Amino acid sequence: MTALAEAVTSLPICYEDVVAARAAIGSNVIRTPCLRSQTLSELTNADVWLKFENLQFTAAYKERGALNKLMSLNAEQRARGVIAASAGNHAQGLSYHAKRLGIPATIVMPRFAPVVKVKQTEGHGAIVILHGESFDEASAYAHTVAAQRNLVYVPPFDDALVMAGQGTVALEMLEDAPEIDTLVVPIGGGGLISGMATAAKHINPAIEVIGVQAELYASMYAKLRGQSAACDGDTLAEGIAVKEPGKLTFEVVKALVDDVVLVGERDLEKALAMLLNIEKTVVEGAGAAGLAAMLAHPHRFRGRKVGLVLCGGNIDTRLLANVLLRDLARSGRLARLRIRLKDRPGQLFEVARIFDQQQVNILEVYHQRVFTNLPAKGLITDIECETRDRDHLDRLVEALRGAGYEVRNMELD
Fold it and tell me: Name one GO molecular function term (predicted).
Protein backbone atom coordinates (compact mmCIF):
# COMPACT_ATOMS: atom_id res chain seq x y z
CA MET A 1 0.00 0.00 0.00
CA THR A 2 1.38 3.42 -0.96
CA ALA A 3 1.89 6.22 1.55
CA LEU A 4 -0.98 8.12 -0.09
CA ALA A 5 -3.31 5.13 0.17
CA GLU A 6 -2.42 4.63 3.84
CA ALA A 7 -3.11 8.29 4.58
CA VAL A 8 -6.47 8.19 2.79
CA THR A 9 -7.78 5.22 4.77
CA SER A 10 -7.57 7.16 8.03
CA LEU A 11 -9.22 10.35 6.79
CA PRO A 12 -12.76 11.59 7.60
CA ILE A 13 -13.96 11.10 4.01
CA CYS A 14 -13.06 8.91 1.06
CA TYR A 15 -13.68 8.90 -2.68
CA GLU A 16 -16.78 6.73 -2.28
CA ASP A 17 -18.31 9.41 -0.02
CA VAL A 18 -17.92 11.98 -2.81
CA VAL A 19 -19.50 9.62 -5.35
CA ALA A 20 -22.38 8.98 -2.92
CA ALA A 21 -22.81 12.73 -2.47
CA ARG A 22 -23.19 13.20 -6.22
CA ALA A 23 -25.93 10.57 -6.24
CA ALA A 24 -27.66 12.20 -3.26
CA ILE A 25 -27.73 15.75 -4.63
CA GLY A 26 -28.47 14.55 -8.16
CA SER A 27 -29.76 17.20 -10.53
CA ASN A 28 -30.77 19.54 -7.70
CA VAL A 29 -27.58 21.53 -8.22
CA ILE A 30 -26.34 22.81 -11.56
CA ARG A 31 -23.59 20.91 -13.33
CA THR A 32 -21.69 24.08 -14.03
CA PRO A 33 -19.45 24.38 -17.10
CA CYS A 34 -15.69 23.86 -16.95
CA LEU A 35 -14.20 25.79 -19.87
CA ARG A 36 -10.72 26.60 -21.10
CA SER A 37 -9.83 30.30 -21.13
CA GLN A 38 -7.69 31.08 -24.14
CA THR A 39 -6.90 34.63 -23.06
CA LEU A 40 -5.99 33.78 -19.45
CA SER A 41 -3.91 30.88 -20.73
CA GLU A 42 -1.93 33.25 -22.93
CA LEU A 43 -1.52 35.83 -20.15
CA THR A 44 -0.30 33.32 -17.55
CA ASN A 45 1.71 31.00 -19.83
CA ALA A 46 -0.37 28.10 -18.57
CA ASP A 47 -3.39 26.12 -19.75
CA VAL A 48 -6.22 27.59 -17.66
CA TRP A 49 -9.57 25.89 -17.09
CA LEU A 50 -12.36 27.67 -15.22
CA LYS A 51 -15.11 25.95 -13.22
CA PHE A 52 -18.02 28.39 -13.13
CA GLU A 53 -19.53 27.64 -9.72
CA ASN A 54 -20.69 31.27 -9.64
CA LEU A 55 -23.44 30.04 -12.00
CA GLN A 56 -25.15 27.94 -9.32
CA PHE A 57 -28.64 29.15 -8.44
CA THR A 58 -27.32 30.81 -5.28
CA ALA A 59 -24.10 31.78 -7.13
CA ALA A 60 -21.77 29.57 -5.08
CA TYR A 61 -20.58 25.97 -4.74
CA LYS A 62 -21.80 25.83 -1.12
CA GLU A 63 -25.12 24.41 -2.25
CA ARG A 64 -23.47 21.06 -2.86
CA GLY A 65 -22.32 20.34 0.67
CA ALA A 66 -25.38 21.90 2.31
CA LEU A 67 -27.75 19.80 0.23
CA ASN A 68 -25.80 16.60 0.84
CA LYS A 69 -26.11 17.23 4.59
CA LEU A 70 -29.82 18.00 4.37
CA MET A 71 -30.48 14.82 2.39
CA SER A 72 -29.01 12.80 5.27
CA LEU A 73 -31.51 14.09 7.87
CA ASN A 74 -34.40 11.92 9.02
CA ALA A 75 -38.01 13.11 9.25
CA GLU A 76 -37.73 14.08 12.93
CA GLN A 77 -34.59 16.16 12.32
CA ARG A 78 -36.17 17.88 9.33
CA ALA A 79 -39.21 18.81 11.40
CA ARG A 80 -37.04 20.41 14.10
CA GLY A 81 -35.23 22.57 11.58
CA VAL A 82 -31.62 23.46 10.91
CA ILE A 83 -29.28 26.28 11.87
CA ALA A 84 -25.93 27.41 10.50
CA ALA A 85 -23.35 30.14 10.85
CA SER A 86 -22.11 31.66 7.64
CA ALA A 87 -20.55 34.75 6.09
CA GLY A 88 -23.02 34.33 3.27
CA ASN A 89 -22.71 31.57 0.68
CA HIS A 90 -23.29 28.60 2.99
CA ALA A 91 -26.27 30.53 4.36
CA GLN A 92 -27.81 30.94 0.92
CA GLY A 93 -27.16 27.39 -0.20
CA LEU A 94 -28.57 25.91 2.98
CA SER A 95 -31.60 28.19 3.18
CA TYR A 96 -32.47 27.69 -0.51
CA HIS A 97 -32.45 23.89 -0.36
CA ALA A 98 -34.02 23.81 3.11
CA LYS A 99 -36.96 25.79 1.79
CA ARG A 100 -37.20 23.51 -1.24
CA LEU A 101 -37.30 20.48 1.08
CA GLY A 102 -39.71 22.08 3.58
CA ILE A 103 -37.13 22.34 6.39
CA PRO A 104 -37.17 25.47 8.63
CA ALA A 105 -33.79 27.25 8.56
CA THR A 106 -32.13 29.80 10.84
CA ILE A 107 -28.87 31.47 9.85
CA VAL A 108 -26.46 33.38 12.11
CA MET A 109 -24.31 35.83 10.14
CA PRO A 110 -21.56 38.21 11.29
CA ARG A 111 -22.69 41.81 11.46
CA PHE A 112 -20.25 42.78 8.67
CA ALA A 113 -21.77 40.28 6.19
CA PRO A 114 -22.45 41.92 2.79
CA VAL A 115 -25.97 43.29 2.52
CA VAL A 116 -26.53 41.38 -0.72
CA LYS A 117 -25.90 38.07 1.05
CA VAL A 118 -28.17 38.94 3.98
CA LYS A 119 -31.03 39.91 1.69
CA GLN A 120 -30.63 36.89 -0.54
CA THR A 121 -30.59 34.55 2.46
CA GLU A 122 -33.78 36.11 3.82
CA GLY A 123 -35.22 35.85 0.32
CA HIS A 124 -34.88 32.07 0.53
CA GLY A 125 -37.14 32.03 3.58
CA ALA A 126 -34.55 31.70 6.35
CA ILE A 127 -34.58 33.58 9.64
CA VAL A 128 -31.37 35.64 9.76
CA ILE A 129 -29.68 36.59 13.04
CA LEU A 130 -26.81 39.08 12.81
CA HIS A 131 -24.33 38.48 15.63
CA GLY A 132 -20.61 39.01 16.20
CA GLU A 133 -17.79 40.70 14.36
CA SER A 134 -16.39 37.52 12.81
CA PHE A 135 -17.42 34.11 11.56
CA ASP A 136 -16.05 32.54 14.74
CA GLU A 137 -18.28 34.68 16.96
CA ALA A 138 -21.29 33.96 14.76
CA SER A 139 -20.52 30.23 14.87
CA ALA A 140 -20.30 30.17 18.68
CA TYR A 141 -23.65 31.93 18.94
CA ALA A 142 -25.23 29.56 16.40
CA HIS A 143 -24.23 26.59 18.55
CA THR A 144 -25.85 28.28 21.55
CA VAL A 145 -29.10 28.89 19.66
CA ALA A 146 -29.04 25.32 18.32
CA ALA A 147 -28.91 23.94 21.86
CA GLN A 148 -31.61 26.32 23.11
CA ARG A 149 -34.06 25.59 20.28
CA ASN A 150 -33.12 21.95 19.61
CA LEU A 151 -32.09 22.65 16.01
CA VAL A 152 -29.73 20.59 13.84
CA TYR A 153 -26.47 22.46 13.34
CA VAL A 154 -25.14 22.29 9.78
CA PRO A 155 -21.42 23.21 9.71
CA PRO A 156 -20.20 25.30 6.77
CA PHE A 157 -17.11 23.13 6.28
CA ASP A 158 -16.05 20.87 9.18
CA ASP A 159 -18.38 17.98 8.45
CA ALA A 160 -17.83 14.79 6.44
CA LEU A 161 -21.08 15.09 4.46
CA VAL A 162 -20.47 18.76 3.69
CA MET A 163 -16.91 18.05 2.53
CA ALA A 164 -18.08 15.15 0.36
CA GLY A 165 -20.71 17.35 -1.27
CA GLN A 166 -18.13 19.99 -2.12
CA GLY A 167 -15.90 17.30 -3.60
CA THR A 168 -18.37 16.80 -6.45
CA VAL A 169 -16.84 19.94 -8.00
CA ALA A 170 -13.65 17.97 -8.68
CA LEU A 171 -15.55 15.01 -10.13
CA GLU A 172 -17.14 17.27 -12.73
CA MET A 173 -13.96 19.18 -13.51
CA LEU A 174 -11.88 16.09 -14.16
CA GLU A 175 -14.61 14.54 -16.28
CA ASP A 176 -14.81 17.66 -18.44
CA ALA A 177 -11.05 18.36 -18.52
CA PRO A 178 -9.14 15.18 -17.61
CA GLU A 179 -5.91 16.81 -18.76
CA ILE A 180 -5.86 19.13 -15.72
CA ASP A 181 -2.70 18.43 -13.70
CA THR A 182 -3.06 21.19 -11.09
CA LEU A 183 -6.11 22.28 -9.11
CA VAL A 184 -5.99 25.69 -7.43
CA VAL A 185 -8.64 25.94 -4.74
CA PRO A 186 -9.57 28.77 -2.30
CA ILE A 187 -9.34 27.86 1.40
CA GLY A 188 -11.42 29.33 4.18
CA GLY A 189 -12.34 26.60 6.61
CA GLY A 190 -11.15 23.96 4.17
CA GLY A 191 -14.36 22.17 3.15
CA LEU A 192 -14.03 22.71 -0.60
CA ILE A 193 -10.38 21.77 -0.90
CA SER A 194 -10.85 18.74 1.35
CA GLY A 195 -13.60 17.30 -0.81
CA MET A 196 -11.88 18.19 -4.07
CA ALA A 197 -8.50 16.78 -2.99
CA THR A 198 -10.16 13.55 -1.88
CA ALA A 199 -11.78 13.06 -5.27
CA ALA A 200 -8.89 14.34 -7.38
CA LYS A 201 -6.16 12.31 -5.72
CA HIS A 202 -8.21 9.13 -6.19
CA ILE A 203 -8.81 9.84 -9.87
CA ASN A 204 -5.23 10.95 -10.53
CA PRO A 205 -2.71 10.48 -7.68
CA ALA A 206 -0.18 12.63 -9.58
CA ILE A 207 -2.40 15.70 -9.71
CA GLU A 208 -1.27 18.70 -7.67
CA VAL A 209 -3.78 20.34 -5.35
CA ILE A 210 -2.81 23.87 -4.33
CA GLY A 211 -4.73 25.87 -1.76
CA VAL A 212 -5.02 29.66 -1.73
CA GLN A 213 -5.60 31.95 1.22
CA ALA A 214 -5.70 35.71 1.62
CA GLU A 215 -2.61 37.08 3.36
CA LEU A 216 -4.82 38.69 6.01
CA TYR A 217 -6.39 35.32 6.92
CA ALA A 218 -3.60 32.77 6.52
CA SER A 219 -5.04 30.37 9.10
CA MET A 220 -4.61 27.04 7.27
CA TYR A 221 -1.27 28.15 5.81
CA ALA A 222 0.05 28.88 9.30
CA LYS A 223 -1.41 25.79 10.96
CA LEU A 224 0.25 23.49 8.42
CA ARG A 225 3.56 25.05 9.42
CA GLY A 226 2.92 24.82 13.15
CA GLN A 227 2.54 28.57 13.40
CA SER A 228 -0.18 30.95 14.47
CA ALA A 229 -1.60 33.64 12.20
CA ALA A 230 -2.88 37.04 13.30
CA CYS A 231 -6.04 36.85 11.18
CA ASP A 232 -7.58 40.28 11.02
CA GLY A 233 -8.45 43.12 8.67
CA ASP A 234 -10.78 43.81 5.79
CA THR A 235 -10.15 41.46 2.89
CA LEU A 236 -11.87 41.45 -0.47
CA ALA A 237 -12.13 37.67 -0.05
CA GLU A 238 -14.45 37.74 2.94
CA GLY A 239 -15.85 34.34 1.94
CA ILE A 240 -12.56 32.70 2.97
CA ALA A 241 -11.78 35.01 5.90
CA VAL A 242 -11.79 32.24 8.51
CA LYS A 243 -9.60 32.58 11.60
CA GLU A 244 -9.58 28.90 12.53
CA PRO A 245 -9.75 26.07 9.96
CA GLY A 246 -11.77 22.95 10.67
CA LYS A 247 -10.31 20.01 12.57
CA LEU A 248 -11.56 17.45 10.06
CA THR A 249 -10.60 19.56 7.08
CA PHE A 250 -7.12 20.11 8.48
CA GLU A 251 -6.56 16.34 8.55
CA VAL A 252 -7.46 16.07 4.88
CA VAL A 253 -5.48 19.13 3.82
CA LYS A 254 -2.39 17.96 5.71
CA ALA A 255 -2.56 14.53 4.03
CA LEU A 256 -3.61 15.39 0.48
CA VAL A 257 -2.93 19.04 -0.36
CA ASP A 258 0.47 19.67 -1.93
CA ASP A 259 0.89 23.33 -1.04
CA VAL A 260 -0.90 26.43 0.21
CA VAL A 261 0.01 29.86 -1.17
CA LEU A 262 -0.96 33.35 -0.06
CA VAL A 263 -2.27 36.27 -2.10
CA GLY A 264 -2.47 39.96 -1.33
CA GLU A 265 -5.40 42.29 -1.74
CA ARG A 266 -4.01 43.89 -4.87
CA ASP A 267 -3.76 40.51 -6.63
CA LEU A 268 -7.32 39.68 -5.57
CA GLU A 269 -8.57 42.98 -7.00
CA LYS A 270 -6.67 42.49 -10.24
CA ALA A 271 -7.91 38.92 -10.66
CA LEU A 272 -11.52 39.91 -10.02
CA ALA A 273 -11.30 42.70 -12.60
CA MET A 274 -9.64 40.39 -15.14
CA LEU A 275 -12.37 37.78 -14.81
CA LEU A 276 -15.02 40.41 -15.46
CA ASN A 277 -13.18 42.14 -18.29
CA ILE A 278 -11.89 39.00 -20.01
CA GLU A 279 -14.38 36.26 -19.16
CA LYS A 280 -17.38 38.56 -18.64
CA THR A 281 -18.18 36.74 -15.42
CA VAL A 282 -18.79 38.25 -11.97
CA VAL A 283 -17.01 36.68 -9.01
CA GLU A 284 -16.57 37.68 -5.40
CA GLY A 285 -13.13 38.05 -3.87
CA ALA A 286 -12.87 34.39 -2.85
CA GLY A 287 -13.92 33.37 -6.35
CA ALA A 288 -10.95 35.27 -7.77
CA ALA A 289 -8.43 33.72 -5.35
CA GLY A 290 -7.27 30.98 -7.74
CA LEU A 291 -6.42 33.41 -10.53
CA ALA A 292 -4.88 35.76 -7.95
CA ALA A 293 -2.52 32.92 -6.98
CA MET A 294 -1.44 32.54 -10.60
CA LEU A 295 -0.77 36.27 -10.81
CA ALA A 296 1.11 36.37 -7.49
CA HIS A 297 3.17 33.22 -8.13
CA PRO A 298 3.57 33.03 -11.93
CA HIS A 299 6.57 30.66 -11.93
CA ARG A 300 4.66 28.19 -9.76
CA PHE A 301 2.07 27.53 -12.47
CA ARG A 302 3.87 28.25 -15.74
CA GLY A 303 3.41 25.41 -18.25
CA ARG A 304 0.84 23.62 -16.08
CA LYS A 305 -2.73 22.63 -16.96
CA VAL A 306 -4.50 24.51 -14.20
CA GLY A 307 -8.08 24.15 -13.01
CA LEU A 308 -9.48 27.17 -11.14
CA VAL A 309 -12.73 27.15 -9.17
CA LEU A 310 -14.72 30.38 -9.47
CA CYS A 311 -16.35 29.40 -6.21
CA GLY A 312 -18.78 32.29 -5.77
CA GLY A 313 -20.27 35.37 -7.39
CA ASN A 314 -22.03 37.10 -4.51
CA ILE A 315 -20.36 40.50 -4.35
CA ASP A 316 -21.89 43.79 -3.32
CA THR A 317 -22.37 45.92 -6.42
CA ARG A 318 -20.86 49.01 -4.78
CA LEU A 319 -17.75 47.05 -3.84
CA LEU A 320 -17.55 45.60 -7.35
CA ALA A 321 -17.75 49.09 -8.85
CA ASN A 322 -15.01 50.30 -6.51
CA VAL A 323 -12.71 47.40 -7.46
CA LEU A 324 -13.23 48.04 -11.18
CA LEU A 325 -12.57 51.77 -10.86
CA ARG A 326 -9.41 51.10 -8.86
CA ASP A 327 -8.28 48.70 -11.56
CA LEU A 328 -8.84 51.37 -14.20
CA ALA A 329 -6.80 53.81 -12.12
CA ARG A 330 -3.92 51.39 -11.69
CA SER A 331 -3.86 50.65 -15.40
CA GLY A 332 -3.68 54.36 -16.23
CA ARG A 333 -7.11 54.53 -17.87
CA LEU A 334 -8.38 56.72 -15.04
CA ALA A 335 -6.14 59.27 -13.37
CA ARG A 336 -6.17 62.24 -11.04
CA LEU A 337 -3.50 64.79 -11.91
CA ARG A 338 -2.56 67.55 -9.46
CA ILE A 339 -1.40 70.57 -11.44
CA ARG A 340 0.12 73.75 -10.01
CA LEU A 341 -1.14 76.87 -11.76
CA LYS A 342 -0.29 80.54 -11.64
CA ASP A 343 -3.07 82.73 -10.31
CA ARG A 344 -3.81 84.60 -13.51
CA PRO A 345 -6.61 84.57 -16.09
CA GLY A 346 -6.65 81.80 -18.69
CA GLN A 347 -4.53 79.27 -16.80
CA LEU A 348 -7.26 76.65 -16.53
CA PHE A 349 -8.18 77.25 -20.16
CA GLU A 350 -4.60 76.61 -21.26
CA VAL A 351 -4.49 73.36 -19.28
CA ALA A 352 -7.82 72.24 -20.76
CA ARG A 353 -6.46 73.02 -24.23
CA ILE A 354 -3.58 70.57 -23.67
CA PHE A 355 -6.05 67.89 -22.57
CA ASP A 356 -7.97 68.53 -25.80
CA GLN A 357 -4.83 68.33 -27.91
CA GLN A 358 -3.96 65.00 -26.34
CA GLN A 359 -7.56 63.76 -26.77
CA VAL A 360 -7.97 63.09 -23.05
CA ASN A 361 -11.45 63.23 -21.55
CA ILE A 362 -11.82 65.43 -18.44
CA LEU A 363 -14.22 63.94 -15.88
CA GLU A 364 -13.93 66.25 -12.87
CA VAL A 365 -12.07 69.46 -11.99
CA TYR A 366 -11.26 70.50 -8.40
CA HIS A 367 -9.82 73.95 -7.65
CA GLN A 368 -8.01 74.50 -4.34
CA ARG A 369 -7.04 77.93 -3.03
CA VAL A 370 -7.51 77.73 0.74
CA PHE A 371 -6.44 74.31 2.05
CA THR A 372 -2.94 74.31 0.64
CA ASN A 373 0.59 75.15 1.80
CA LEU A 374 1.23 77.13 -1.37
CA PRO A 375 1.67 80.94 -1.14
CA ALA A 376 -1.53 82.96 -0.95
CA LYS A 377 -1.49 83.57 -4.68
CA GLY A 378 -0.68 79.92 -5.38
CA LEU A 379 -3.25 77.65 -6.94
CA ILE A 380 -3.53 73.91 -7.50
CA THR A 381 -6.15 72.06 -9.45
CA ASP A 382 -6.93 68.35 -9.41
CA ILE A 383 -8.25 67.00 -12.68
CA GLU A 384 -9.74 63.52 -12.97
CA CYS A 385 -9.46 62.24 -16.51
CA GLU A 386 -9.93 59.20 -18.72
CA THR A 387 -7.25 57.95 -21.10
CA ARG A 388 -6.81 55.00 -23.43
CA ASP A 389 -3.94 53.41 -21.51
CA ARG A 390 -0.81 54.12 -19.49
CA ASP A 391 1.16 55.33 -22.53
CA HIS A 392 -1.61 57.82 -23.38
CA LEU A 393 -1.52 59.14 -19.81
CA ASP A 394 2.27 59.46 -19.92
CA ARG A 395 2.04 61.51 -23.12
CA LEU A 396 -0.45 63.86 -21.46
CA VAL A 397 1.79 64.39 -18.42
CA GLU A 398 4.78 65.00 -20.69
CA ALA A 399 2.82 67.61 -22.68
CA LEU A 400 1.73 69.42 -19.51
CA ARG A 401 5.26 69.52 -18.15
CA GLY A 402 6.54 70.62 -21.55
CA ALA A 403 4.19 73.61 -21.27
CA GLY A 404 5.79 74.56 -17.95
CA TYR A 405 3.26 73.05 -15.52
CA GLU A 406 4.21 71.19 -12.37
CA VAL A 407 2.25 67.91 -12.51
CA ARG A 408 1.81 65.11 -9.99
CA ASN A 409 -0.03 61.88 -10.69
CA MET A 410 -2.09 60.98 -7.61
CA GLU A 411 -1.68 57.23 -8.17
CA LEU A 412 -3.07 54.44 -6.02
CA ASP A 413 -0.57 52.46 -3.96
Answer: L-serine ammonia-lyase activity
